[in-house]
Amino acid sequence: MSGRRLLLPWLSLRTGRSRWTGRLHDGVNACGRAAFSICSPKVCVVGSGPAGFYTAQHLIKARQDVEVDIYERLPVPFGLVRFGVAPDHPEVKNVINTFTLTARNSRCSFYGNVNVGKDVSIEELRRAYHAVVLSYGAEGNRRMGVPGEDLAGVYSAKDFVGWYNGLPSCQELSPDLNCETAVILGQGNVALDVARILLAPTDILKKTDITQPALEALVKSQVRRVLIVGRRGPMQVACTIKEFREMVNLPDTRPEMVVDDFEGVKEALKDLPRPRKRLTELMMKTALDIPGEKEQERQNKASRVWAFRFLRSPIEIMANPDNNRTVGIRLAVNRLEGSGEGAQAVPTGEVEDVTCGLVISSIGYKSLPIDPSVPFDSHKAIVPNNMGRVQHTAGLYCSGWLKTGPTGVIATTMNNSFDTARSVVEDMESGTVDVSAAKPGSQSISGLLEERGVKPVTFSNWEKIDSLEMSRGEASGKPREKLLTVEEMLQVARK
Fold first, then answer.
1. pLDDT at site 37
2. Fewer Cβ atoms within 10 A, N terminus or C terminus of the chain?
3. Degrees (nearest 5) of the Cα angle 31, 33, 37?
4. Quick one: how far is CA 83 from the chain centroid?
């Protein structure tokens, strides 16, 4: 049966029924110029976040004959742009417009609701396509590795962000916000996003695409104080100046910085790179300068507080007497050895206990292996590669966080993905990837999926979901009201 099924796409060329056939114009033979779709290089991209779409975009632009199929586990595209970017950062989500243009290109197809590694294997994709690019990101959490991290009241930032952004797998999270103090471990942009969402006036949030259940929980939240904790010092924080400035200007909040944390920092400023210098200067100003009259008045009226705590590492999450939920965190007090970006945090032997009812760990995302046939470095949590070429596996590539680890902003991912796409094109042109032999592409994969009872969601199906979400949002003064379960998404997509 399997041999016969593989023949079906080729037979269907005569019937005029397939998407494939629709691209042919009076082809005379299998490799004639007009028989465009048969002989065109076919590339499969796994994952429809920024890495996947930027890879597809560059491939389509670089070669006028390439066809790209994007496979996505969820029925909806755009990955962390939809599920990771903070609701109060709509301008960052504008890249969706670019991705939509790519998806609507006649040489690009989207197949949502397809779980690669489960519904279809990497080996099956490699047989069907000239090249396969893995761009499925980092869906795992780095664990703290301390006692108590599985207690109620302790969450990963990835899951917390997924909860307020509508990621279906995080909708059962229902975090308990009935405490005064929250501790966030990590001082990167994601940590600051979480702090901002916890403290922002809900009048601001209700005009964003934050989910309704999250908005309702935040309206009732008792959190009034957020500590943002880092293991190193002010000159090593991972956030950007934009995110820090947003914290400084957040309505109804005031900063509480420890003046002693900035001892000796002024003297070191001159040696810092410009972006780091500007960020450090703003932190120093926030910590050391006496506010002007207007700013002092604003801070005096603030009902909520945020603070950076430096040179602290978690050593234990402390439990209540019933040992079933967090009531605090024990922190090791560190000192720095070395200087600049390479400085290392070394425990001094002192500890500090902080009372809190909510701990959110923002110490990094990590990629997970997708398929036993794909090399994976479990220590670095990446697919080992050279310029996106997966080691010892011709025709297999990776881009985005799977390639580099979870670093940088969307623009970083864009450049990283363009580099991988360039590697694919170079290999096609050098013959390392043989594109002279025709490959069936989505035609054979569609057959396999149908056989397995998997019904992909096309981009036009997604546009039905998009349209409904936007109309639901409009009714309540929001840009969109997201569907929160895969079942709801599929129901709307298939109408």
1. 53
2. N
3. 70
4. 7
What are the structure tokens assigned to 260, written together? Answer: 């002693």
Other beta carbons within 10 angstroms of residue 225's beta carbon come to 18
HSE-up of 147 (CA within 13 Å, CB side)? 8
The amino acid sitting at 222 is: Q
2 neighbors 399 (Cβ within 8 angstroms): no
Instruction: State the chain's maximal CA–CA distance in angstroms.
Output: 81
| Residue 452: HSE in the Cβ half-sphere, 13 Å Cα cutoff | 17
- Determine the pLDDT at residue 339: 83
Tokens standing for 255? Answer: 């900063």
Q: Please check whether residue 180 is in contact with residue 224, taking contact to mean a CB–CB distance below 8 angstroms.
A: yes
Q: Any idea what DSSP says for residue 436?
A: S
Percent with pLDDT over 90 in the chain? 86
Q: With residue 319 as reference, give the H or E element that holds it.
A: strand 312-319
Quick one: which of 404, 399, 403, 393 has its CA closest to 417? 399
Structure letter (DSSP) for residue 291: P
How many residues can be counted in the chain? 495
Q: Are 46 and 396 in contact (CB under 8 A)?
A: no
Burial (CB count <10 Å: 0-12, 13-18, 19+), residue 451 = exposed
Alpha-carbon torsion 394, 400, 406, 408, what sign?
positive
358 close to 199: Cβ distance less than 8 angstroms = no
Distance CA 145, CA 72 (A): 31
Instruction: Express each pLDDT in 213-236 by its tens digit.
Output: 999 999 999 999 999 999 999 999
Task: Give the separation between CA 327 and CA 315, rounded to whole angstroms.
Answer: 14
With CA atoms as reference, report the closest residue to 128 among 480, 381, 443, 459.
Answer: 443
pLDDT in tens, 321-349: 998 999 999 999 999 998 888 899 999 99
C-alpha torsion angle, residues 343, 344, 345, 346 (rounded to 10)? -130
> Quick check: helix, strand or coil at residue 188?
coil
Distance CA 461, CA 492 (A): 8
Could you give the CA distance from residue 163 to residue 484 in angstroms, rounded to a whole number? 10
Please tell me whether residue 63 adopts helix, strand or coil conformation. coil
- The β-bridge partners of 69 are 44, 109
Helix residue ranges, H only, 314-458: 401-404, 410-430, 442-451
481 vs 473: CA distance, rounded Å: 4
Please give the average per-residue pLDDT across 380-388, as a whole number: 96
- Tell me the pLDDT tens digit for each residue of 294-323: 999 999 999 999 999 999 999 999 999 998
Tens of pLDDT, residues 443-461: 999 999 999 999 999 999 9
